[in-house]
Amino acid sequence: MNLVPLVLYAAAMVAYAWHFAQRNPVVGRSATTLLVAAALSHTFVIGMQTMEAGHIPVAGATPAISTFVWLLALSYLYVEMTADERAMGVFILPLLVALQTIPGFRPGVEDRAAVLQGPLFGVHVSSLLFAYASFALACVIGITYVLLFKEIKAKHLGFFYARLPSLQVLDRMNHRAIVIGWVFLTIGMIVGAFWAAQARGGYGAGDPRVQAMSLEDPKIFVALLCWVVYSFELFAARRIGWGGRRTAYLSALGFVIVLFNFVPITYFFSKSHNF
Questions:
Q1: In terms of pTM, does the model score above 0.90?
Q2: Please, what sign has the CA dihedral across residues 26, 27, 30, 31?
Q3: C-beta separation of 49 from 109 below 8 A
Q4: Which pLDDT value is given to residue 207?
Q5: What is the reported pLDDT for 229?
């Protein structure tokens, strides 16, 4: 069942690449239709897992990745339909396919440990996943900005110029995505700190993973580093006047940190976030 969304995401990726190359309206509509079908099938899978486990599948690295992919797909579809622009799909879909491969071939929902019960944990994880989805969009927008900027600077208005929105529109979209992501990242970290303090002094006092929740844990340290990078990006944009390529590069750097923290650190290095 988990392979169905993966197959549909992969088919949508091919269709978006075809549309980006040919700018064929029929292919573009087909790409959107395939992505909608992928998102709907993914919604069904998550719904079934929620009914089976009794909670939204966010506990554990693999279910969290699946939920992140789902949120990113929905976020991108919202942007595409409101902006009436499919150009960024060719950059978003490879990320969706790459990440969905993990839950696609490692299906199942892990049992939720007793320490993870309660609303604070749900708010903590949901906020972070939504923040990561916003940062992924910002990263893709930043990449497209740089590609278009280089083409304009070279005075060769061709492939990307004919397919991407203007630099001003891309810069504005990037900033909005960063602001939304930063807000939810901040909420997720604050709520996570309260949840960890509550668990450490109560029902999770005997759990070594709860006791390991400190800045010495790579997962928490890198999350804080990510917050610092995006905070600086917003500060630089507002106070120093940074924009355009600089914010695009910072968006890409921030999301590389997010991906590094989201997958390899969670699986191999974290002592506290391996429930």
A1: no
A2: negative
A3: yes
A4: 61
A5: 92
